[in-house]
Amino acid sequence: MECLPAKGPVSPHLPFGDQRSAPFYGKDILSVKQFTREDLEYIFGVAHEMREMVARVGSFDLLKGKIMASLFYEPSTRTSSSFLSAMKRLGGDVIPINEVRYSSVSKGESLPDTVRTLECYVDVIVLRHPEVGASALAARYARKPVINAGDGVGEHPTQALLDLFTIIEELGRVQGLTVTMLGDLKYGRTVHSLAYLLSLYGVKINFVSPEILKMPADILSQIEEKEITGAEFTDLDQALPETDVLYVTRVQKERFEDIAEYEIVKNAYTITPETLKAAKEQMIIMHPLPRVGEISIAVDDDPRAAYFRQMEYGLYVRMALLAMVLGKA
Ligand code: NCD
Fold first, then answer.
1. Residues with Cβ within 6 A of ligand 1?
2. Does 310 score more than 60 pLDDT?
3. How many Cβ atoms are within 10 Å of 288's Cβ, its own excluded?
4. Beta strand pairing status for 124-129 and 67-72?
5. Domain 157-312 adopts which CATH fold?
6. Residue 268 neighbours by CB under 8 Å, 6+ apart
7. Domain extents in the chain
8. What atom of ligand 1 comes closest to residue 288's alpha carbon?
9. What's the pLDDT band for 12 if we cut at 50, 70, 90?
10. In the predicted model, is pLDDT for residue 263 greater than 80?
């Protein structure tokens, strides 16, 4: 039996405006490379409206009757719960599958079969998977929109969108800023996606990492194609004073083939109140979280610590994305 309807416009109703002006209707969100500056402005405009709506009314019925499957093959707290909250605040419903070992995946079901099953019951699939390209594979088989919630060391496009939205809401602009990425730039998928998105703006990017955790060469060359230079350092001291956004990451223990290598670099950097003495007064500190020691809790009360606010911005961006791919924004 075929599950219908096919990928693409399905709903005749668009409360936020004319359906023809819903550019993401029925689309997958797989990679930041699919977005133009214009797209980003559109997404952030909708996210900003979502922020205002949540402040005013908390929840509303924009996606009433719609169902989202949240299919997570890797651990998650923020990404999964913010997508769940986003769907519920928009009046929709959710089928959460976090423990894939309790689903038919543990019987050996393939990803294409699992998504073709789920799309019979839902309108959109949010997928986190340990393999690079898993969401693209899922999207090839699914007729309903697939949203990449992290594919191994590949990309994390919705995180990068919320990171950029955080910068805009906190600092009012992106153009002209100096962003310093710190930590595990090799395995951290959030910095892979964010570096590319930032390259669409006139920014300066500093990459600070241990020698064995440098930003992959293909990402460096992609951003250089956009005429952005990425200066590389192993020491934060040289980059910190000029930094407007300090983006700290966790060393991704689960991605190391040799755990002895992890042990060497796991404590490479720790941001403390002492570190911040050399930083700008108006700088913001971001982190996709979870943190495991790279930002001391003594920093949390510093007004520059934006990482808890960043999580909240994620809710608005994910609300915007769900509304958009379901043709309601
Ligand atoms: C990140 C991830 O899963 O890539 N977390 C998140 O989505 N907020 C970063 C990490 O796990 O270190």
1. 78-79, 150, 156, 159, 189-190, 250, 288-289
2. yes
3. 26
4. parallel
5. Rossmann fold (3.40.50)
6. 183, 209, 210, 213, 251
7. 32-156+315-325, 157-312
8. 8
9. very low
10. yes
